[in-house]
Amino acid sequence: MNLVDMNIVDRRLKSIAEEMGIVLMKTSYSTIFNEGRDFTCGVADESCELLASADFQPAQVGGMPLVVSSIIKEIPLSEMDEGDVMIHNDPFRGGMHTPEHTLIKPVFFEGEFFGFSVAIGHIAEVGGMVPGGFPGEATEVYQEGLRVPPVKIQARGKDVEPVWKIMLANHRTPRQNHGDIRALISAVNRGESRILELIKEYGPERYREICTDLKDYAERRMRAEITSIPDGVYSFEDFMEDDGVTDQAYKIAVDVYVSQDKIVADFSRTDNQSLGPINAVLSVAWSATYNAILHLTDPQIPRNSGAFRPIKIVAPPGKLVNADFPAAEVGGNTETHIRICHTVVGALAQAIPERAFAPDGGTHSNFLFGATDERTGNYAVCYDFTGAGWGGRPVADGHNATNCINGNSRMNPVEVFETRFPWRFESLGLIPGSGGDGEYRGGLGVNKVLTCLSDDMEVSFMSDRQKIAPWGIGGGGEGQNGSVLIRRKSTPDFVTACEDSNKTSASKFNRIGFRKGDQISISSPGGGGYGDPQERSSEQRAKDRDEGWV
Amino acid sequence: MNGDLEKTQQPHTSAPSDHAAQGIVLGIDIGGTFTDYVAYDKDAKTATAWKYFSNAEDPAAGIFDGLKEYQQLDRIVKIRLGTTIATNAILERNGAVVGYIATKNFTDIPHIGRGDRKGIYDAFWVKPESLVNRKNCFGVSERISSEGDTLVDLDEAELRTIGRQIRERGDIEVIAVNFLFSYISPKHEQGAKEILEEEVPGIPVSISYDVLPKWKEFERSSTTIADAYVKPIVNDRLPKIIEKIGQLVPRADVAIMKSNGGETTVGLACQQPVQLLLSGPSGGVVATQHVSKANGFDRVMTFDMGGTSSDCAICIEGDVNLTTDFEVEWGLPVQIPMVDVRTIGAGGGSIAWVDNGGMLQVGPRSAGSMPGPACYGRGGTEATVTDANVILSRIDHNNFLGGKVALDLEAARSAIGVIGDQLGLSIEQTAKAIIDIANNNVASELRRMAVENGHDPRNFSLMGFGGAGPVHVADLMRLLNIKAGTVPVFPGQFSAFGFTCADARIDSQRTVQMRSGSLDFDRLNEVAASLRNTVTEEFSRQGYASGIEIKLYVDLRYEGQNYELSVPFGFDRFDQNNMEVLRNDFDTEFDEKYGFCLPGEPIEIVNLSVTGVVAQPKPDIEASLGETTSEPKTHREVWFEGGSVNAPIYDRTRLPVGVQIHGPAVIEEDVSTVPINAGQSVERQPSGVLVIKEFQEV
Amino acid sequence: MKYSANGLYVEEYRKCINCGELVYDEGLFFTDEDGTRIGPFSSAWDMEWYKGREARQNAKGPVLIKDWRSETQS
Q1: Which residues are CB-neighbours of A453 under 8 A, at least 6 positions away?
Q2: Residues of C with CB below 8 A from A313's CB?
Q3: For residue B695, what pLDDT is reported?
Q4: Which of A230, B82, B414, B449 is least buried, going by the fewest C-beta atoms within 10 A?
Q5: pLDDT for B6
Q6: Touching A: which chains, 3+ CB pairs < 8 A?
Q7: Positions of chain A with pLDDT lower than 50, given as ranges
Q8: What is the pLDDT of residue B11?
Q9: Is residue C27 in some structural domain?
Q10: Architecture of domain B93-233
């Protein structure tokens, strides 16, 4: 084992994944890609184990190994050729949720197979019952857009046109999606050629050896981290407040078994799957659990499959964390992931409070709409989100207005948003006092109020944390809940979607019609507090008051 | 607080031609530890470089002392100064108390930011704080729409009340104003500036339209606030430095280096100090530009390695690569056009360590300049990249900085030995491993920079400077598959040398945001004219009436994309025919960068950019060839790939021009050393530059 | 996973009843005291974990966990 080569190859592999991401960002079409950075790129070896990934979206990093291995379960290696590109988004066959499209390209060096170059991207509009994805009232996956099982979208470097045609015929924004899929393909192409250079440089044998060593190294480091956690069984539970279709809360319960250098996260006590679209599929449960553990351990551990080996996830079928076909599931990756992740953190916080942190606001406040823009006559579709407060941690207050733990997207600027979409912002501001109190306070949520400028606007929403607040740790207070409120042009008051349109859920709903002058007010939740509020220093208290944080 | 403000705003009136013919041009680069000086003598065609300790307490006094070292002060006609005053004010958070005035109900923009994090998985990362306190943010009723229509008039009475509040409170030193969509219609911001100047006289007001007339309100607010934040300190300190210089060199015209690599007057620098954030590093880019042009290098990547970090940049066909994505710290964007210099966390002082998985790592922690590497003998005990270079004899411990600084070889050996013991490697093997890893870290960042700009690093040559850059150039060439490397003259004072080559230069941009289907040619022509006007007016305030060269660029993308390509626009006016030419140029350039293009797809025009240059005479240095010899001055054991070799050591200043020296070898000069690997050759050019090449396939 | 005979669609999504992973082959089963066939499981470790649920709930103190890696690999 040559430690120097290992370090160098590790860095090179990560650079390859980053380079793929840069290509994707610079050439993609939808803001959710290039501004929201809702994608991840990686390199996998011939056993479908992840060798490296670029740090873009945490939601996708942990799901990558499962999605890659499930593709080659369906398209055997013997049927793959040089120049092939496979596409896949089926959440019940290894995918994460319908918008998440995985593209993989096999890498052959002198005819020999060496693994894959992988890109996963969020293609927001994939058909289904509402524009922009995220039908908050869906009850089966068929309503959530087109499912694509593992198929070749390019064969030996040439487009498989029937696949393109079928896909783009089912999307509301084919021009944009075509651009985004092209960008994903250029990313896996770039990855392939860089991997080949690396193999050539080190020689096939040496490359394989180093990759094997690298996974073992990451495993060793993860085991060392886990060993430092006291052995025991740590349980925690939290809820999704409703599923958009029934007014019922769903429990996510985890028992985390820490035994020497291994962790089992057992979700058997979690509620059964929901009727509405908050179900997580297995790769979401994996990704969310890995996300929690990666946040609680040394961030420098290489993110390859070796790091995940000491972690076993038990997510029995039919549970909210591993819904069975054909459940509605589009909110699982975006919303339920966050709850699963913080539930695992909450469990382990009992063992290692000094490394833990209170939960973030727990929702991306996914705001979807479609409308004719009278300025251009074009029909515009948008998927917008709002940052929430982050939880306090043992070193500092939580971030304000920041994308939740499974994402790292940037919010749309007001000036870009108004230029592109028929809405006008009335206000955009932090919500003072929305962070949970504590020795370290939760970060603040955001409120924005927008006026509709179109007469055929349809708004859908996918959110949570309007009834059950983000909790605190070690005596820290709860973060403030969020809300989505509607005010008609003719009426004085803002009311919930339940009151306005007789919806079951105020946080998850489909297609509420807006006309010119109607308004929507979106508030994201604050983060939970960390530690006893009594311990907060008087200087911090004074600053809180002075700066208007409380 | 800055009584000198008025005085320093007086434009320089001296005509540029005064100093074109003869005399000395001096570049001064004020750094944290040292101030670098390079004097170019136009008559003798020679340049002299020296260093002097900076004086952190009193920068003006430091420069005064450093200048006195020079014998020919009376012949200096022009001084160009690079300053870190603005950058340090932000990094050390000792700028002014800013009052921020924004569109009512949008005052939290600086504290909301964009909602992303520096990285993922680090739960304990703390976001850098905004430069403005939330309690100092004020909202005023006014609103412009995305089409430029006035939805709400500016409420003057409300603004006057805010002005009075600020005056009565008395703690706010400077004001930044940022209204939504001011890049389309600046009338409210301009009106607000007038009112505030009446209500709070003596307090400088920065409006976002003047600083950065581009869309995206957070980035514009951050840039405008940064400008306001550094304004008082720059207005206080810069004139003092200029005055002190004037005492010694009364005849010289003193100019300040801006972040875009161009010079400006002291008065204009004080008016818009945000232009100074990369004042110092811009010199390295300008020098690269000059050396590339003079030697015919088309595509150059630069690598400037210092103690704590390295700077890298790209220069294509002698053009400065500009960026508008600069962030002073994470989440504090300053988006005016600046030289695209990336700082990477790898320097001579980067510390080697073994992680808990048994892997050797180098950086990101650095021993900095205090205590510095173990071999400096100033109490450092941790192994650094410099220590590894000393162990491998790539740096001669007996001849560091021309023998002025003695290095402690034993301290280096014991520091590296500690790491070696953990790895089970010899001291030399460990040192080699540290160098290999450090080189790979740097190579990854250089590759990333090329890729982000749509380039393949293999098509570049690599220029190494700074104290440690030349030591690593030959190795980095191999890692990046680069066929040619260069080490310029004055590698240790390259920025200051760049200052002697600088032009007067203005870069300005404005967002127009249109789709190809519905272009408004009148507005495009109007904005283009106003940008061109801005340039000529500012040059006239700098004292230039002729010799102004203006280029217009259009920032384009396919509709819906988020990153633009800047395409030159060679016509006087926008019309349908010219647009088609522009369109074709865009498709071609996109294809070159990303391997595909989409002719016929709708495109968007996002910004118009303008670059104005008044060219200044360039140094023309003839390598002063005293007695030359192609014989090595000595031999010593030096470690290269594959082990130790009794390598010939050459004195750079005595190398004959045009003679190839084959590696393994080491070229030494006072400020740096250049190890050349087996399979590589090095040759001194007539201009004095060293060119390293691969002469056999490896 | 049970695919149609022509291979063009999925007839049944089969998952390990313990960990929830898709089972592409037969999978492992055991027969309980009532003679009911229980499964599929994706590994022996999963079967054991499934059977040990009650014992773990009654256990006092930390539970020693067997490594799943050695078994799934063999």
Answers
A1: A374, A422, A423, A424, A516
A2: 19
A3: 81
A4: A230
A5: 29
A6: B, C
A7: none
A8: 33
A9: yes
A10: 3-Layer(aba) Sandwich (3.40)
Cβ separation A73–C1 shorter than 8 A: yes
State whether residue C64 sits within 8 Å of chain A by CB. Answer: yes
**What's the pLDDT at B69?**
85
Distance CA B361, CA A70 (A): 35
CB B308 within 8 A of CB B369: yes
Integer Cα distance of A287 and B611 in angstroms? 48
Domain boundaries, chain A: 3-220, 357-550
Residue C10 domain-assigned (yes or no)? no
Half-sphere exposure of B587 (CA within 13 A, CB side): 12
Chain A residues touching C1 at Cβ < 8 A: 73, 93
Q: Which two tokens stand for residue A450?
A: 């927008």
Measure CA A64 to chain center. Answer: 12
Q: Is residue C7 part of a domain?
A: no
The 3 state secondary structure assigned to B463-483 is EEECCCHHHHHHHHHHHHCCC
For residue C68, give Cα distances in angstroms to A229, A312, A339, C42: 19, 8, 27, 11
Where are the strands (E) in A414-471, listed by range?
423-430, 446-452, 457-462
**Burial letters for B518-530: b for 16+ Cβ neighbours within 10 Å, e otherwise?**
ebeeeebeebbee
Residue B243's pLDDT band (boundaries 50, 70, 90)? very high
Which of C19, C42, C48, C64 is most worth mutating to test chain A (most A CB atoms within 10 A of its CB)?
A: C19
DSSP state for residue B440 in the 8-state scheme:
H
Nearest Cα of chain B lies from the Cα of A89 at a distance, in angstroms, of 23
* HEC letters along B422-435: HHCCCHHHHHHHHH
Residues 6+ apart with CB under 8 A from B34: B51, B52, B53, B54
Tokens of C35: 């003679």
Strand C37-41, strand C10-12: pairing: unpaired
Interface of A with B in 67-126 (CB under 8 A): none
In this structure, are residues B166 and B140 in contact, taking their beta carbons and an 8 Å threshold?
no
| ipTM of the shown complex | 0.95
CATH number for the domain whose boundaries are B503-614: 3.30.1490
Cα-based angle B296, B297, B301 (whole degrees, multiple of 5): 160
Q: Which residue on chain A is closest to B557 by alpha carbon? A: A27
d(Cα B110, Cα B674) in Å, to the nearest integer? 46
Domain boundaries, chain B: 93-233, 350-438, 503-614
pLDDT at residue B17, rounded to an integer:
42
Q: Output the six-digit token pair for C30.
A: 């055991």
Range of the domain at C28: 15-52
Q: How far apart are CA B208 and CA B228, in angstroms?
A: 10
CA nearest B261: which of B290, B230, B240, B303? B290
Q: For residue B1, what pLDDT band results from cuts at 50, 70 and 90?
A: very low
Look up residue B375 and give its DSSP letter.
Answer: G
Closest CA to B657 of B617, B687, B679: B687
Question: Do the domain assignments include residue C64?
Answer: no
- Residue A5 — φ and ψ, nearest 5°? -60, -40
End-to-end CA separation in angstroms for chain C: 22
Contact A313, A116 (CB under 8 A): no
Do C and B count as touching (3 or more CB pairs closer than 8 A)?
no
